[in-house]
């Protein structure tokens, strides 16, 4: 429970980082505020998970609706942090924490801005690669070559289906995955994206023009590598 609660607090902070870092805004010293009226949030409005429920996802000052995504991320990252801290070895704790934190942050920047933020992508994945090499993990050249072939195919035939940031992110992930894991990652990502697309079409009667794909890739990564 302590791991989950600590992870929920970190999840709330990750939301702030993902919202402010691409806009070059301070996310360390500036207080959290309402997105609508810009009033500084009081301490009881910042309690992870509980505050959102207590306030019914509305700002107490202006009455406007508070984003549901922050509350959802607090729950999801609470579970992720618990999962990372309960791994059986120091290696798996380190790799899971770095890899899944990077995936969470990049999923959020993709959700907010359709952007794979370089200031998050490069430092965290250099740390991940350093850990992989330090712990002597196998580097799968064959899987990376398959990604290159797929990238060339999509570039010439389905260029708009995935952004360059998605391919760059996969380039950091794929060398550490077997062919089976990579295939499972793509299957889970594509299937979950299709489900969300059809859900939007059925319930909103209008399919979304664009879907952020990094959250689905992150789900595929979790299923393929960590489960």
UniProtKB/TrEMBL annotation:
<feature type="domain" description="Prepilin peptidase A24 N-terminal">
    <location>
        <begin position="5"/>
        <end position="86"/>
    </location>
</feature>
<feature type="transmembrane region" description="Helical">
    <location>
        <begin position="66"/>
        <end position="83"/>
    </location>
</feature>
<feature type="transmembrane region" description="Helical">
    <location>
        <begin position="42"/>
        <end position="59"/>
    </location>
</feature>
<protein>
    <recommendedName>
        <fullName>Prepilin peptidase A24 N-terminal domain-containing protein</fullName>
    </recommendedName>
</protein>
<dbReference type="InterPro" id="IPR050882">
    <property type="entry name" value="Prepilin_peptidase/N-MTase"/>
</dbReference>
<feature type="transmembrane region" description="Helical">
    <location>
        <begin position="137"/>
        <end position="158"/>
    </location>
</feature>
<keyword id="KW-1133">Transmembrane helix</keyword>
<feature type="transmembrane region" description="Helical">
    <location>
        <begin position="182"/>
        <end position="203"/>
    </location>
</feature>
<dbReference type="GO" id="GO:0005886">
    <property type="term" value="C:plasma membrane"/>
</dbReference>
<dbReference type="GO" id="GO:0004190">
    <property type="term" value="F:aspartic-type endopeptidase activity"/>
</dbReference>
<keyword id="KW-0472">Membrane</keyword>
<dbReference type="GO" id="GO:0006465">
    <property type="term" value="P:signal peptide processing"/>
</dbReference>
<keyword id="KW-0812">Transmembrane</keyword>
<dbReference type="Pfam" id="PF06750">
    <property type="entry name" value="A24_N_bact"/>
</dbReference>
<feature type="transmembrane region" description="Helical">
    <location>
        <begin position="95"/>
        <end position="116"/>
    </location>
</feature>
<dbReference type="InterPro" id="IPR010627">
    <property type="entry name" value="Prepilin_pept_A24_N"/>
</dbReference>
């Amino acid at each position: 429970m302590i791991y989950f609660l600590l992870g929920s607090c970190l999840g709330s902070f990750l939301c702030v980082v993902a919202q402010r870092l691409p806009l070059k805004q301070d996310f360390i010293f500036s207080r959290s505020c309402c997105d609508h009226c810009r009033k500084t949030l009081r301490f009881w409005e910042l309690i992870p998970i509980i505050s959102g429920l207590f306030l019914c996802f509305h700002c107490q000052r202006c009455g406007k609706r508070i984003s549901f995504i922050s509350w959802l991320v607090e729950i999801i990252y609470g579970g992720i942090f618990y999962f990372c801290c309960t791994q059986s070895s120091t290696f798996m704790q380190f790799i899971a924490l770095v890899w899944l934190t990077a995936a969470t942050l990049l999923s959020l920047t993709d959700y907010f801005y359709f952007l794979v933020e370089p200031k998050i992508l490069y430092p965290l994945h250099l740390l991940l690669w350093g850990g992989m090499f330090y712990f002597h993990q196998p580097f799968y050249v064959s899987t990376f070559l398959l990604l290159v072939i797929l990238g060339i195919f999509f570039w010439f035939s389905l260029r708009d289906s995935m952004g360059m940031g998605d391919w760059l992110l996969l380039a950091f992930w794929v060398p550490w995955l077997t062919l089976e894991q990579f295939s499972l990652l793509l299957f889970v990502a594509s299937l979950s994206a299709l489900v969300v697309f059809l859900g939007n079409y059925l319930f909103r009667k209008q399919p979304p023009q664009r879907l952020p794909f990094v959250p689905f890739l992150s789900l595929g990564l979790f299923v393929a590598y960590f489960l």
